[in-house]
Amino acid sequence: MDFQKYTDRFIAATLLPFIPSAVTPNQVSWLRIASLPFIYVLLATGNYVWGLVLFAIAALTDALDGAMARTRDQVTETGKILDAVADRALIALVAIILIPQFFGWWLVVALACTEALNAIMAYRSSKRLGHNPGANWAGKVKMVIQCVGFLILFYAIAFPNGFALGSAGILLIVSLPFAVLQSFLYPKR
Q1: Which DSSP state fits 39?
Q2: Among 19, 65, 128, 178, which residue has the fewest nearby CB atoms (within 10 Å)?
Q3: What does DSSP assign to residue 16?
């Protein structure tokens, strides 16, 4: 997808010069995973402003590790799996803690079901292909929409705002069709 190439070029020109070449994309994915306990503590203690900041940084590492892997020719099978696990863990953590309070458990269940479908379809595709297919455009769009939705939700909680809260809910619901589409776009052969 051309958008990905432009995003990769932008990140390569603006952020990657500040990251030593010794740092690998997989290390960035591990950093995202390592941030999860800190995000949990911030959310559990009601420190939503710092939770917002750390979640935004963690979400940025998703774009960063992918751009690093593609522009530095460091795409690996392990990296594809690690990136997907880090993404799903970040979204699941925040979803389980925040969504029930503001939108109900139905949305958590819907997000969980679409992610389970994605995992099953990615696994089936990897078995057919003999390698991990990696993320597709619908999955990347879904992740961006979810991250923006959660950032707005953090903002709405930290600085009470009904419009922002409603916007966050709409974005999280809008991410669902992209999650389903992602599942069916995995290569069949």
Answers
A1: H
A2: 128
A3: G
